[in-house]
DNA sequence: TATATTTGTATCGTGCACGATTTAAACTTG
DNA sequence: CAAGTTTAAATCGTGCACGATACAAATATA
């Protein structure tokens, strides 16, 4: 029982540092993304679209582990900001295909320096070795989350 | 330049798996916290209050790396759910002191099994070794974030 | 080929996060 | 001690997250 009570201390939670560091890192992006006029989740959508020109909402959702009820309004905002286009698929009228406008494509040149700048910022909080180890573990977890439906 | 373009691929982002895993883990808590009728950030406030009976809003904010503009409405919801009490400090009228109601104190017994249940759930996604290593790195980052104002 | 089921988006409501601003109390300084 | 500054909460507005529900198109089944 004493051990279980100890497990309820904030410092012993696994989840909490994950939650706090995630927000901390997102905050590091803010000034860089402000220059593009996008939010952090919108930036993730841009990363997806820079890898694939035309992609259905559903597929973006799967890549980012988000639901369409989060993405639909987010994509509408990006559309009204002139960054992306939304059009219905010809072959399946249910599907909405997302693509970049010339403006959205142009953002890639501005964004090219962001990853390096962010690594510099993270140097204030961690070593590159630690960041690398952490990323490897997180990727493993995400990978298992994609494949392990038996377990959840 | 080719290297910089590679860095813009989603799979090469540090931030993204952090963001996605953070949400994934929070989702694992949901069914457990539903039994208490609290959200995940509210659960974090409970963890703080189980360690310290009476605590100002500001101090909770510092422990959880949140702003008071996030906490004030959250605490009001917890108050109207009968979990906590809010009262002005006698010695400093600016300060609002948060404390648990008997109901909030009683939640601790119900919550005592949550950490173990969560570890079990995480076993589906990761090894305990990896979780331990990750937590150590995340704690280091948080620690540096608390102390390094020169760098940000 | 009607009917039922599944699938991809969209809509709605609640609760965070967080920047910006406001307010009142406490503190500092001239 | 009066004026300016700092500090702790609160308020406001915007944008996620996400559960629940709706709806229409596509598919499966009777």
Defining traits:
homodimer; 152 residues; mainly alpha; Arc Repressor Mutant, subunit A; three-stranded antiparallel beta sheet; DNA-binding
Structural features, described:
The structure is a homodimer of 152-residue chains. The first copy, chain A, has 152 residues and is mostly helical. Chain A has a single domain, classed as Arc Repressor Mutant, subunit A. Chain A contains eight helices and three strands. Chain A has a three-stranded antiparallel beta sheet. In chain A, a hairpin with a 7-residue loop joins strand 2 and strand 3. In chain A, helix 2 crosses helix 7. Chain A is globular, with a radius of gyration of 19 Å. The model of chain A has no long low-confidence stretch (mean pLDDT 94). Chains A and B meet through helix 1, helix 2, helix 3, helix 7 and helix 8 of A and helix 1, helix 2, helix 3, helix 7 and helix 8 of B. Chain B binds a DNA duplex (30 and 30 nucleotides) through helix 2, helix 3, helix 4 and helix 5.
